[in-house]
Design brief:
Layout: E1 7-11, E2 32-33, E3 36-37, H1 38-48, E4 53-58, H2 63-68, H3 73-81, H4 85-92, E5 101-105, H5 112-117, H6 120-123, E6 128-131, E7 135-138, H7 143-154, E8 157-163, E9 173-180, E10 184-192, E11 203-211, H8 215-219, H9 232-238, E12 245-249, E13 253-256, H10 260-272, H11 278-286
Parallel strand pairs: 1-4, 1-6, 4-5, 8-12
Antiparallel strand pairs: 2-3, 6-11, 7-13, 8-11, 9-10, 10-12
Bound molecules: uridine 5'-triphosphate.
Length: 288
Amino acid sequence: MVKAVTKAVLPVAGLGTRFLPATKVLPKEMLPVVDKPLIQYAVEEALEAGVEDIIMVTAPGKGALEDHFGRAVELESFLEARGKTEALASIRDNFPKPAHISFTRQDDPQGLGHAVWCARKLVGDEPFAVLLPDDLMQATPGCLTQMVAAYEKTGGHIVAAEEVPEAHTSRYGILDVAEDDGSLVRARGLVEKPAPKDAPSRLAIIGRYILQPSVFEHLDKKMTGAGGEIQLTDAIAATLDDVPFHGLRINGRRFDCGTKLGFVEANVAFAAARDDLGGDIHEILAAY
Ligand code: UTP
């Protein structure tokens, strides 16, 4: 039996330069899709999958993320007194239990691998999930829940994967596929941001991982890779002699909310899927 995944690392220390000027003061992860910040979707997805402890890797200027997950006592009393139960639930329910959220810092954005390394003491010697909040998933059951179900059979490292156009391989970590049953893929390796001609497949890693703690041994070496950054995928690749590695095609949709188009599309898709907004959204869109 594999050891359960009870901890999730959410790296949120990036600068969000593709979203300036919105992200000059506001952390990218606080951008709302309809009425909920990106970070909250990721936390809810983790909790749904059975995660108990949320570990955020933040950076200077990202205090709003910490405040969002703290109690807002005055606001709660105000809503309670006014009988605004729905609004009250929206700031109380689906949040991590007290003392089950921790914050650590990455003072210098040296890459995703480095951000995850910053959480090593809080993770300890056990498997853990990594969720990148700017990859927003619309999936039932949630993306991480689907991955945990697969992980219970495969163990090892497992990543969420999605077919991307050939021209886009240089934006992603790409899987070197050994076996593929159409949903679960056994991978013999991976390449970070290959040019289309060098890509071993078109199956890209998207922002969800379940990893074994052995990745920290490689991350400890602080070796830089593609783009001069410390890459998480390089650390995964370094462990593959000892750890099985799978990709899972997710039943659902992914929105790359780190880009303007992906973010706008996510707002439309999430609003369209809601009972209270869906009809109006279709009407509004028909006007364009
Ligand atoms: P991105 O590649 O989207 O980088 O990071 P970014 O800085 O957030 O945005 P741009 O490219 O400047 O617009 C993917 C994820 O990894 C985190 C980011 O916060 C985001 O969740 N990250 C990236 C870190 O936490 N630290 C880093 O050094 C790099």
